Amino acid sequence: MGKLRILIFLLIGVTLITSSCRIAREAGGTYISGTSAGDAETLNWILAADSASFSYAGHALDSLATYDNEWRVQLRCAAKDVEVSEDGLVYTVTIRDDLKWSDGSKVTAEDYVYTLKDLMFSDWLNYTYQSDWQEEVDGETVFVTPEVVNEVTFTITRQTLDPEFIYTVRGLTPYPKHIAVKYEGDVKAFTQAPEFNNLTYTGNLGPYKFVEWIRNDKFVVERNPEYYLGKDTEAPYFEQYIIKIFGTPATCHGALEARDITYTGIDPDKVGKFKQIEWINVYTVPTTGYVLLAYNLRDNGWEGFKQKEVRQALSMAISKELMIEQVLYGFGEPAFSFIPKPSPWYVDKGLAKYGVKPLLDKEKAKELLLEASYATRKADGSIEVINKGGKPLKLTLVTNTGNEIRENVGYLVKQELSAIGIEVELKLVPWATELRKYLMNKVPGTDQEPRYNNGVGAVSEEPWDLMIMGFSTNPLSPSGSDVFYATKGGLNFWGYFNTQTDELFQRIKSKEALDEKARKELYAELSRLISEEQPVNFLAFQLANAGFQKNVKGIEPGINMGYNYHMWYFE
Amino acid sequence: MPMKKSWLRDYIIKRLFYAVIIAFGILTITFVLVRVGPSSPADKYLANVAARGQDVSQVVAAIEARHGLDKPIYEQYINYVGNLARGDWGWSFSTSMPVTELIKTHWIYSFQLIVLSSVFAALLGILIGIYSAVRQYSKTDYIATFLSFIGISIPNFWLGVMLILLFSVQLGLFKTYYDTSIPLFSLANLKQLILPVITLGTGMLAGYTRYTRSAMLDNLRKEFVRTARAKGLPERTVIGKHVFRNALLPLITIIMFDLGSIVFGGAYLTEIIFGIPGLGRISFNAIFADDYAVVVTVTLISAFLILMINLITDITYTYLDPRIRYD
Q1: Which residues are A89's β-sheet partners?
Q2: Contact between A473 and B49 using a beta-carbon 8 Å cutoff
Q3: Any residues with CB less than 8 A from the CB of B78 and at least 6 apart, and which?
Q4: CATH assignment, B99-320
Q5: Which of 198-227 (B) contact A at CB < 8 A?
Q6: Is residue B43 pLDDT above 80, yes or no?
Q7: What's the complex ipTM?
Q8: Angle at Cα B264 formed by Cα B259 and Cα B270, nearest 5°?
Q9: Are B200 and B178 in contact (CB under 8 A)?
Q10: Is B172 close to A483, i.e. CB distance below 8 A?
């Protein structure tokens, strides 16, 4: 009897121990994510240029690694983190050995290398983001070199250093070589390949399997019981996952309120209402998107902008906190450079915080303009802002139609600048017009092809002085923003040319930045310089609001909120 | 009778021949307009491209090359028409599927909405209009007139959102969006179409009420009505057979015209509000994506439908009023 009791206790103990090791839950329910941002264009991700397409395909295909809310690496298809050689030139990737395509064949290093060499780097496919995998060697643009080491290991070799290239490598996803070779060299056949357009090859590579995609309506995937991360946990825990497309944010919000959908993003002005609804949780999380006021430093902009002090004066006259409160309903953080606060490379110390006190001072702004000869002191001691011809200063502010936030920021800038005596004319133009007439530029009287940065002397077709824009920064590799702020940056629309800035961007991509401490110091220096220089007025980083039905559990609110979404479940 | 058949057949053949020529003209104009516009299919990616720190020019060139948009426009046009002649309507690069497949999947959603809304508006509008005319200046007539003006004045996008907020969000009687997983030929589908049909049909219903009333009143005062009544015909026969039949001619014109205009664009807003993945929504998105294969095809289908609707209207006239001849 005693032995039997011991045996029973042992059995119970073993059962309890093993069940506590497996955090398995029963899968069930349909998770519906509502969006009014538009549909994806393709599931054949290598042809995609829109974020929705990558996001759809991502439900069935994991990348090598991803990041949690604190930017800690979370291994996915990679068996261990990407190893970088001491000289920073060779990246060694080891993939898991339990990855399978849908036909049961193994996912190998050969598939990854083929995807890189024969698809992404090929001439015939025109992969949109080829430049991620290119480097400048002796004035020539060349691709990095991928090579298979063994079945589960491959290397990628660079000739030049780029300490931030590792983030590109970690984002890699593969195509099955044995299927893709059938379409090799024929872009039409590849584009229309049923396997790639219906994600029938994805095997156990993602938490979900493709079910159907009704264009402009919904994208449906179902639980993948074979998912390699679900071996111990039986994740994911939703039977179906649907992305439902709505025509307007109002109907999308209505659907969340009526419990017809599980999740949607909430517009800032609706957050208060949704926080009152007892069956909804609203999480406010940081984003990488920022709103800025660009100054046209080219020859067809107001000549005053060529002086740093004048740019600082204008930035000093516009309250960022007022803008956040009035336009973003409080859901924003003042921005002082292009690096967002949640980035591991953000350094607050030494930033010139224009637009918040004490560097929010309209009187001081006028004095700076007076010193720069753009104002006169009147007999009563007050300062009147004028242009060089002695007339009242009038500036043209351009932004695109259809973006309520930018339009409202435009009105606020107009109001703030009028308080220091600058008249602002607000021009709302369609996006395509803004691109072609206000952003593309060329040197007048030449045969130059208009581009977004044609260097010194180039001007846009239509003159402008100020422009409200919205950009985002990759928090892991903010140096990608050199396209906006470096002299040769392809998107340096406004003509900001500064050798010091260029040098810092270059140093961040050099050997000295391999050491993360040194890289952080370089970023700190760059942020300080750019906040001082004010090539643009960085206004605010936006915060996003995510509304979920309260019965969704497992969510970790943060900048990468969805990183563990395969572990979410319904209570 | 054989005489009539003969000129009518000739007339139909002639109109069909013209329809083909007009459709070809529309195809050419639409193709050129879409392709010579200043925008590029790559425009909408700029923000995303910029966020990734990419070279915009390279991305634009890659996207245009992949879709054959880097070739001269005449070459693109010749390729397109050549493919069309072989029955290949092209590949929609904004949805990644063949255009014919896209149309085949989505036309039914627009069709059911347009047909049900038109039937709802025409039946109810004509009935209310007749009642209003027969009971002119009665309380019912005043109420119908008042409601008709409200119906005409309400923008359907506003009405749709209000209906969703009231009946779906507040009362929970309907789903907030159109659910494509519900079988098309089911009561559940009919139920989920109630709010979209009311949204799209209300404006038309109000219009038909007013037109019917006015056409009926116009005919009620005519000599032949007095004669019919003098002959002792029952009032139902006078109204139904004599007055209504004569009032029907202008009404047919208006109903067919409306049908044409909602095919062209009226249904689009309703599709947007209720999340119905119909052709209106597909073509609207295609316009912004510069997806010319879809834009040209949908425009062509709409134009052809309008031409056919006009032809059917003309033929209907000859039956409603045998005096009308087109020879």
Answers
A1: none
A2: no
A3: none
A4: 1.10.3720.10
A5: none
A6: no
A7: 0.86
A8: 85
A9: no
A10: no
DSSP A144-163: -EEEEEETTEEEEE-SS--T
Give pTM, 2 decimals. Answer: 0.89
Give the pLDDT confidence score for residue B48 in this predicted structure: 63
Contact A276, A472 (CB under 8 A): no
Q: Where are the domains of chain A?
A: 22-60+206-279+550-571, 65-182, 287-544
CA distances from residue B228 to A336, B213, B218 in whole angstroms, order as listed: 86, 20, 16
> Which of 3.40.50.720, 3.30.413.10, 3.30.310.10, 3.40.190.10 is the CATH number of A22-60+206-279+550-571?
3.40.190.10
Looking at the complex, report in whole angstroms how far the Cα of residue A36 sits from the nearest Cα belonging to chain B. Answer: 10
Q: Characterize the bridge pairing of strands A466-472 and A280-295.
A: antiparallel
Specify the pLDDT at position A503. Answer: 98
Considering the segment(s) A65-182 as one domain, its CATH architecture is Alpha-Beta Complex (3.90)
Segment A305-327, tens digit of pLDDT: 999 999 999 999 999 999 999 99
- β-partners of residue A67 are A73
At position B316, the amino acid (one-letter code) is T
- Structural element, H or E, at residue B62: helix B56-66
Token pair in block for residue A533: 């220089």
CA distance A236 to A567: 6
Question: Which residues have CB under 8 Å from B294's CB, separation 6+?
Answer: B92, B94, B95, B99, B102, B282, B283, B286
Task: Identify the burial level of A164 via C-beta atoms within 10 angstroms of its C-beta, where 0-12 means exposed, 13-18 middle and 19 or more buried.
Answer: middle
Q: How close does chain B come to A109, measured CA to CA in Å?
A: 26
Interface membership of B286 toward A (CB under 8 Å): no
Q: What tokens were used for A436?
A: 């072609």
> CB contact, 8 Å: B140 with chain A?
no
Token output for A419: 């308080």
CATH homologous superfamily of domain A287-544?
A: Dipeptide-binding Protein; Domain 3 (3.10.105.10)
Q: In angstroms, rounded to a whole number, what is the distance separating the alpha carbons of residues B223 and A449? A: 75
Q: What is the pLDDT of residue A129?
A: 86
Domain boundaries, chain B: 99-320
Stated length of chain A: 571
Tokens of residue A388, six digits: 């060089």
φ/ψ region of B68 (left if φ > 0, alpha if ψ in -120 to 50, else beta) reads left
Identify which of A196, A174, A191 has the alpha carbon closest to the alpha carbon of residue A61: A174
